[in-house]
Design goal:
Two copies of one chain form a homodimer. By secondary structure, the first copy, chain A, is an alpha/beta fold. The first copy, chain A, contains 14 helices and 17 strands. In chain A, 34% of the residues lie in helices and 27% in strands.
Chain lengths: 388, 388
């Protein structure tokens, strides 16, 4: 295999060195395409170009590894590569989630392989496990912590009883959160990953924007104290559950028992719990972000291309039932508010009401539909956290 | 697929019910072969026989699922089935570890598939991950807790500062240990699993008896106190590490840091840590024993047969290097003794010596070879625990 690599960050550099040491992966890097060709590099200058056609039009290159940030530019590269009959490895979750159908069609049309293990939970081989091991209708749910930045922030918030803003600043200083953290803290990054996994887990293609998602930015010290008093951690949980042929899928800040395995997933770690027939659960855990975990996943994809591996998307191919996203499930939530209160009529049932000078909360059942339509959710002092 | 199943325990019964509910697994149970045909059963009597030829000689049955205890009887069944061109699913680690070469040859000769995910760490899809995801030479080590009974016993010993014998009794009463616990507590069960995984991880076939193994039966309250004072747990760790083309593989009671993820693997749970290139580690965790976890793995194997899956044993096929078990590594150990002391000359270096009226211990380096030959290891009052 000859590889053309877009991007020369730590992943690209690491790939170069690991491939040189491997006895069994028959892959060689032909060229890196980079933005800034004048910047000094650690490798020979002939290995670099800033002209993408030098990779995409080179018939000797049979695999493109796409490691750039910009999702739209990445999609153009990946599309061109597949249309030129090249196999592609990528870890770009935004690009994959937003273009999933087109990417599936491109693979089919061009009979090429498109692998993206690094796009979901980095080092955790979750896509491969869904494809190869949980490849039938026996899987009933998948849930987990899919975003390392928010998990780092939430771990610190709970440990230090510190409000969101202070911890975000610290996380940014330490490099655990982006300078524009929106995609992470609003749950959008986790939603992209959930969206990709929904297809591999249940054969469901869905527009990421339709999945009900709440972020962690409104969590305050009152919420944290509630968690501590009740022996909870707060985690941003992405979850999909199959009930008959209907899928319930959400990304929500959630109170989880301190003793649970998800509560023990701390800092930048990710975790996935799979439940299947026989009510058995399987737990996978590893670093969810960062150069090395991503590099490790990208490398395994490259290695798999060496023996012609491709995703077979067995769930969608085999299923007789029409799997659908369903939106009318009941959720048990905690809603905390100040002067303005939520509309009680929206609730199916309010189970508990608490008020004090420090804050007020209700605990109750509400339908997903009412939740999605609730105007009061826009009020800055109102925060909702799911009760698992 | 038509299945012939040997054994009608909880796994067999569960399989029957789950297969009836599945839309995608095209498998039907033709017959169960059981020992005692007169015992009343929950299913129709026509589904049972005590004559194994009714399954093995039936050309309509294309898959044999072997779920019996006796390893030698199981091997005869599996051999006959493969020689009759039938695919086989089994979870019998003793049988597989002891007959690995023959079983590999039988698969090849008869062009049949032999799957045994349930044999190693039950619900954890470790074999499939080694085959499919860690299928190249980038894996550097595999270690973990492979035996649920001993982990249950060790968890209780540490929690309750109770000696081995008391806890064993309790574990037996609760059904977490066999009435003859030898295979578990002497580390032999974990060794069988390690032996199977050595082939899938590194392409190494080895006689299980050659792997250096110590059990947990000699651990006393002095050892437990040492663990507690030093913030350790004691775990029975199976471990294989690749250094160049040499493999170091052992099963040893080991002191592990209380904060480590292996220490957090409690009771009947199993865990596996895989380390690979990019120094990334991946952690898999799930129930390691019991009917449901095993059933879950067996079911996934049956499902995989539906699309012609077979292990490709890529490690042994692809590797250019001759992988060998090596026995001359240095180990750091804790050795506790009473009146009779170990032979100091056996040690490469003794780092610490402690003596008191309650017990004595040394900490030091010793070569594997010296350890294997040490006569003093036979003395009942001398116990060795590895320092990780």
């Amino acid at each position: 295999m000859k590889l053309g690599i877009f991007g020369f960050g730590v992943v690209g550099q690491g790939l170069y060195h690991v491939l040189q040491q491997s006895n069994t992966i028959q892959a060689e890097i032909a060229k890196f395409c980079i933005k800034n060709i004048t910047k000094p590099r650690s490798l020979d200058a002939t290995l670099f170009t800033d002209d993408k056609t030098e990779l995409l039009d080179n018939p000797e290159i049979d695999v493109i590894v796409e490691l750039i940030d910009d999702a739209e530019a990445a999609f153009e590269i990946v599309k061109t590569a597949m249309n030129s009959g090249k196999h592609v490895v990528s870890a770009n979750k935004k690009m994959i989630a937003e273009h999933l159908e087109e990417l599936l069609a491109l693979q089919k049309q061009n009979k090429v392989s498109f692998l993206y293990e690094g796009s979901c939970c980095a080092s955790i081989p979750i896509i491969r496990n869904l494809e190869e091991y949980y490849d039938n209708d026996l899987l009933t749910s998948i849930e987990g912590i899919f975003n390392g930045s928010t998990n780092f922030i939430l771990t610190k918030m709970i440990n230090e009883s510190a409000p969101y803003k202070d911890v975000l600043k610290e996380a940014q200083d330490l490099g655990f959160a982006e300078s524009d953290p929106t995609l992470d803290v609003e749950g959008i990054d986790a939603r992209y990953k959930l969206c990709i996994l929904l297809y591999h887990a249940f054969g469901l293609i869905t527009d990421p924007h339709t999945l009900f998602t709440l972020g962690i930015t409104k969590i305050n010290t009152f919420d944290i104290e509630f968690a501590q008093k009740n022996n909870f951690e707060i985690k941003l949980i992405a979850k999909a559950k199959k009930i008959g042929s209907q899928i319930d899928a959400t990304v929500l800040p959630t109170f989880v028992d301190k003793s649970s395995i998800l509560a023990q997933t701390k800092n930048e770690y990710n975790a996935v719990i799979l439940e299947s027939a026989f009510s058995e659960s399987q737990f996978l855990y590893g670093k969810g972000a960062g150069d090395k975990p991503t590099g490790s996943a990208v490398l395994s994809d490259i290695s798999a291309l060496g023996y012609g591996y491709r995703y077979e998307y067995k769930k969608s191919a085999k299923s007789k039932e029409k799997i659908e996203l369903h939106e009318d499930f009941q959720m048990r939530i905690y809603v905390r508010f100040a002067d303005q209160q939520p509309d009680e009529a929206d609730f199916t049932e309010v189970l508990e009401k608490y008020s004090s000078r420090y804050g007020n909360y209700w605990i109750g059942y509400i339908s997903r539909q009412k939740m999605k339509e609730a105007q009061w959710l826009e009020i800055p002092e109102i925060n909702v956290i799911a009760l698992g």
